[in-house]
Amino acid sequence: MKAVSVEQMRSLDQKTIQEYGTSSFDLMECAGLNAGLEIIDYIKNIDHKHVKRFVILAGKGNNGGDGYVVARYLLEHSLSEVLIYAVCGIHDLEGAAARHAGKLKGSVKIEVKETLAKNDFQSGDIIIDALLGTGSKGSLKKPFDNWVKVVNASGLPVIALDIPSGLDGDTGKVCGGGILADLTITIGLPKKGLVLGAGPEQCGLLKVADIGIPDEYIEKVETDFEIYTARDAARLISRLPMNSHKNTRGSVLVIAGSKDYFGAPFLAALSALRSGSGLVRVAIPQNGQPADSRCFSLIIKRVQDNGSGSFCERSIKELEPLIAVSGAVVIGPGIGQNRDLVPFLSYLCTIDKPMVLDADALNMISQIPEIFKEKESTILTPHPGEMHRLLDAFDLSECLNSDRITQAKTLAEATGATVVLKGHRSVIASPDGRVAVNSSGGPALATAGSGDCLTGVIASFIANEIDYFEAAAAAVYIHGLAGELSYFGNRGLIADDIPMLIADAMKKISPFS
Asked: In the chain, which end has fewer C-beta atoms inside a 10 angstrom radius, N or C?
């Protein structure tokens, strides 16, 4: 989904009203109803006793108007009380916002306030920020500076409509403080500032509420990058033919592990299975880890090693037939950085198969970049530390202090590979110039082994002959959504939980596929 500027979004709104014939009242209705749907989805796994009130902070403009529609939706579809703190009375509103606010008369309590205080909120409140939206530029003025300060100090969950108040929708800058949201539901199309600068930290989780902008208008908008959403991922998860069998659903070979790191291969392999591969093989060093007896669905092959539980040149002969019958290959998780790996990795970098290079494979390439061979069928998945080492190795150190989008684009162009720069709001870059910033995920995925699971999903998708950039972007989104669906909250999730949650995420995106 295209990332747009604030002005581009306003132009799309106006074009839809003036040329397509959709009224501003209907656009606001659609925005508020779809935002309400996202809010209900967000809280559905929370015990009702923990959500006592929705407190909506309503500004004077269209963002406030969206808030009034959300209030009506929540009143009709939740069991919790709905209260509105407004910066002005309904008689001071204009246009569609005034009409929507008028529909609430008598059904929702609306309190006009000049300032907020700590005792305006209580335990069990969920605060909804509908103060400024795209109207945030520069430092916050009165009364918004007070409102934002009190909200952030409350410690209560906050949902922002369109853009957290105080955040610049174009640059991601925050001057003098802004709303720290747990969830941001952006309206129409995602704005660039949501993923630039301070945007990712201010926004929390990120969802998009459709308002019905015609596709033909969106197609004409020029943008530097996309923000990848559930709608984008849904295009990649198509209905499986009824006559499918294991050999038509893609096969993955995971070459990973060592004596010291014996869990990584299985996290990647199980994630590949759970994301749709029909058959997954795992190649591990002969003297490495014990095979996990719980992984009955995996085909496990022990190959010759250097005697100490690490792959080496002797491993290649036994890997060749496994590579030949596989649709995609994972190389790197947990293999270590033993010097015996150099000829082993040199060979693997030349194979004519779609491959995902991750973890220690990337670290070895950083030390000896000449073993890497440029191929468009390769996907590199560095975390920030690995990215810095790769930029150094490929003489791209001028990008070390650049933003994440620039780093990913530069490495993709230099290596001819698709690059996934992991982290909050992961960046996916193709050597042909396409760039996407992921919109899913949160702190639940900040746990050891999470990246191994992502690698398995990417391999599963490229084994099914999906475009490398699209496969990587969809996999990153699904992996992020798996973290959002954690049954254990942000602190309790471990990588062992992720493969099953990957299946849940795919079902949520495309229930009938």
From this structure: C
